[in-house]
Design a protein that fits this description.
Distance between the termini: 36 Å
Length: 326
């Protein structure tokens, strides 16, 4: 599901827990605060035993190196979040286009054959409807399948998921549906002209193109070397930062408070990237695939009844004017 919120309500945004990364980040915030307090205590206890500072035990160091490393860490973390967001938005765009193609397929089926109310035409429309519903369900089920997320292989588009009752793969279902389109001349009293038939094929082609692109996003993670480098540098920098800040701290409270929010900022962005890496599933920040597909399925069922006849609620074109059947 996708978290919806009022961008003007600042208090609600700050206090809202659902969809937030607070749960993942908070333990790290407490850990860095604890490290800061421990370092400050150690410095006060063992760093001032002797009047000669050279004889005292110090574990802090100057922050010059951390200032240089901070730039690199910030660049890597922000770049990763930006890439994850671009992937998320691309997936949302492709999903919308795929669902639109499925809906347009149903609409065109009705518009192109609304003058033919014969029993054979109803059979053909029913086959068209069932084929698209099966193709839509199988495609979205594959994208949300946990095994697909683990394996990250496109084989799931080419093999039937018998666990969920599918007897054919997504690619095979699309081929079967295109075969039904070609058979229209055997069912309709007035066969479709080639341009209309090609329009139906185009909807299937557009749908499969979008599904393959969505599968590619899910099957291709963010490059591992960059992820590894970002994670290593982030952890090293974050957990050594208290040693540098305590070195220049003038009181015991500033460093722990500062570390809490620095940790929240940097680790929070990393967890946001992790959330957006795979937009398919049922997590709070995943795409509303089930909800959106349900609306499209309901629309297809409204267009064509279970008997294959055109629904009374469909807007049809007669004599150059639109009117609603009732």
């Amino acid at each position: 599901m996708t978290i919806l919120y009022d961008s003007k309500n600042t208090i609600q945004i700050i206090l809202r827990r659902k969809g937030s990364v607070w749960k993942q980040v908070f333990p790290f915030c407490l850990l860095t605060v604890g490290i800061s307090i421990g370092i400050y205590y150690f410095e006060n206890t063992y760093g001032h035993d002797s009047e000669n500072d050279e004889d005292n035990l110090h574990i802090t160091f100057d922050d010059a190196g951390h200032k240089m490393l901070a730039t690199m860490v910030a660049y890597l973390v922000v770049s990763r979040v930006n890439a994850a967001y671009c992937r998320f938005w691309e997936a949302r765009t492709l999903l919308s286009h795929a669902l639109f193609s499925a809906r347009q397929f149903s609409v065109n089926t009705v518009i192109f054959t609304n003058q033919d109310l014969s029993e054979r035409a109803n059979e053909w429309r029913f086959e068209m409807k069932q084929g698209m519903l099966e193709l839509l369900s199988a495609s979205l089920d594959a994208l949300q399948d946990e095994d697909f997320h683990k394996d990250r292989k496109l084989k799931y588009l080419e093999s039937a998921d018998t666990r969920k009752g599918y007897t054919a793969s997504i690619t095979q279902i699309s081929h079967q549906l295109q075969d039904v389109i070609v058979q229209q001349k055997d069912y309709l009293e007035n066969p479709l002209i080639i341009q209309k038939e090609l329009k139906l094929h185009e909807s299937i082609s557009d749908f499969m193109t979008d599904i393959n692109e969505l599968a590619k996003i899910s099957a291709t993670p963010y490059p591992f070397p960059t992820t590894q480098m970002t994670r290593i540098l982030l952890f090293v920098w974050m957990f050594t930062l208290p040693f540098a800040l305590v070195n220049n701290a003038e009181d015991q409270y500033s460093t722990p408070v500062l570390m809490f929010f620095i940790t929240y900022g940097f680790f929070g962005l990393e967890f946001v990237a992790i959330e957006l890496d795979d937009p398919f599933g049922t997590d709070p920040n995943d795409l509303e695939m089930s909800k959106l597909s349900t609306q499209i399925i309901d629309g297809i069922n409204r267009d064509i009844t279970d008997e294959g006849s055109i629904s009374d609620s469909v807007i049809s074109f007669h004599g150059g004017r639109f009117r609603a059947n009732s």
